[in-house]
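Retro notes (design track)

What went well: tokenization of the new backbones is finally stable.
What didn't: we kept losing track of which sequence belonged to which structure.
Fix going forward: every design gets posted as structure first, then sequence, in one message. First example under the new rule, 205 residues:
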């Protein structure tokens, strides 16, 4: 979720998206206060939220993702930091969002490309389909298992801030990267994956 590092990202809140050099991940200026939005995933049968525990590993078998998870804060301009442009750059969790499995939307982002290093960890994120499983290993040894219910490609200047950051009635996950056409200024769109918690476990799976 940032145009800061890679020139690709959704629009900052109430401002147009910045465009920099060729981009590979997605970033947004997060809201200064929580946004309210109705939950967009079915509420029936949702497992209880997990205790707060920072994410350490992300696995998405359907697209071959198995990556460590770094922690990301805010850049000086108020946009979310992004993982470094480097070989093997991991996914990153925005620590201003809930940890995976807590109530609300936990936000992770990653690169689609990493400059001269080639493909990024989220290169195939747009290929995910509803029903895909996403497992986040947590520091306390538990795992938060999510099921994808929507995958959207959105223009950077129409980034769905409320849907990504807004309050939810259950633990949810957001995975964000770049997508769509690529120009000299970077990718024009963002890919956003929406998933809900379906199976907490006591150990990594």
């Amino acid at each position: 979720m940032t145009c800061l590092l890679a020139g690709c990202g959704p629009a900052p809140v109430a401002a147009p998206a910045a465009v920099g050099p060729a981009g590979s991940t997605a970033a947004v200026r997060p809201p200064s206060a929580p946004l309210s939005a109705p939950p967009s995933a079915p509420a029936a049968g949702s497992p209880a939220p997990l205790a707060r525990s920072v994410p350490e590993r992300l696995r998405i078998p359907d697209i071959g993702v198995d990556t460590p998870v770094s922690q990301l804060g805010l850049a000086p301009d108020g946009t979310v930091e992004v993982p470094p442009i480097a070989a093997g750059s991991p996914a990153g969790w925005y620590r201003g969002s809930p940890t995976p499995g807590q109530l609300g939307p936990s936000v992770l982002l990653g690169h689609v490309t990493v400059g001269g290093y080639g493909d990024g960890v989220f290169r195939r994120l747009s290929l995910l389909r509803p029903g895909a499983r996403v497992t986040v290993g947590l520091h306390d040894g538990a795992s938060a298992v999510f099921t994808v219910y929507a995958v959207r490609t959105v223009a950077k200047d129409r980034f769905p801030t409320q849907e990504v950051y807004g309050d939810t009635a259950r633990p949810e996950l957001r995975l964000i990267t770049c997508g769509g056409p690529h120009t000299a200024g970077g990718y024009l769109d963002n890919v956003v994956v929406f998933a809900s918690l379906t199976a907490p476990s006591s150990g990594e799976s």
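Added context from the reviewer: Confidence is low (pLDDT under 50) at residues 1-23, 36-42.
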